[in-house]
Amino acid sequence: MEQAIIDLIIDSDCANDIKDEDKVYPDIDIEKDLNHDLIEKARKLADINIGYKKTHSWVNMTDLEMLKSAGLYKKDEETKKEGVTLAGIMLFGYDNVIANVNKFCRTDAILRIDDLDRYDDRDFIETNLLDMYDRLLDFIGKYTKDRFTLNSKNIRVSAIGIIAREMVVNSLMHRDITDGHFSRVIIYEDKMIMENPNSFATMGIMTVHNYIPLAKNPTLANFFREIGYADELGSGVRRITENSILYSGKPPIIEDKEMFRITIPLKRDRRYDEVELKMLVEQEMSGENLEDGSLNGSLNSDNKTVLAILIKNPFITAEEMSLKTNFSLRKIYRAYDELKEKGYIERVGSRKTGHWKVLK
Q: Whole-prediction pTM value?
């Protein structure tokens, strides 16, 4: 029921954005416009990921066969023409080819430690998604402190390394790829932020207890899973949360709005031993830190529905809200009160002539 309401709220533009990755470009020449070294790299990664006892099917395929197998070469049902898809170009295209078909295929990596108004270092990454993945990991690794700790299986891991990989691959495969905003990773002294243009589903603060898995670019998501860069849908939220606590003692803040934003604390407030960190992870994952049905500001389904509509139309009346949601006026006003109390909205002007301002 909740997902059905969400689907009605999200307008048709958001729904169409999910399919942008499959737009067909018949004029793209596989031999001239795609980088065959990248295609071969993907073959090797997929073969490694499947395990040494098997051979991945891509290994013995031609480039065209591999692209078709990965859903990166399709037929346009309207024009009946075949060609490489936008996802295929973003993965394997030369930089000039990518720029011609999607000028928004870019991520800015920014360091702000001393110069908070501008930056101390910056990497404008305008290239294919495979090289973008490597450059983003290099940038994060260069400017964050590594801190090894024991995970839930008592295996010593690099928590920041896992966080970086999950954040970066999430950015590459779940971004709204034709949105006018660029993706960014910003590293401060005390936190790291990843921002992505987004077709949102949760419409607020996302946690391991309330997130709604949504493959915004299913073809890209399947490709990254095939080469071993990603796991099953939704696992990234759990991995990021677990390793953020192991790294800093605090969970991340994950905001699923027009811009998807993950904030990772980089500093510990005090010394933690490994037993204590593992206990904090267990509490977070089990929901022991929930208070009054919420965690880090998460909302129940009714409040999320009301907030989503207010984001789209802050001038909507309570009566119109009631008709749109099929909620009683009493439930609408209760939702308003709870959203105000939790700092999500505030009233601007009078009850009759004013409007709502969404704060977060």
A: 0.75
